[in-house]
What does this fold into?
Amino acid sequence: MNIQIMIIIMATLSTGLMSVIFFTLTNAVTPGIGKLKDIEYLGALQAMN
It folds into this structure.
């Protein structure tokens, strides 16, 4: 297999993996954090970083 094809396959798979991670974050974590009060919300987001 050609190196260019391998790079394209790896880039496609890693892009798909990142999209799953962001989709999960958006649908599972964000709604729960959105129910917090403002100060708790800021604290939670700062704790994630």
About this structure: Residues 6 and 35 are 44 Å apart (CA to CA). The radius of gyration is 17 Å. The mean pLDDT is 91. The longest helix spans residues 3-34.
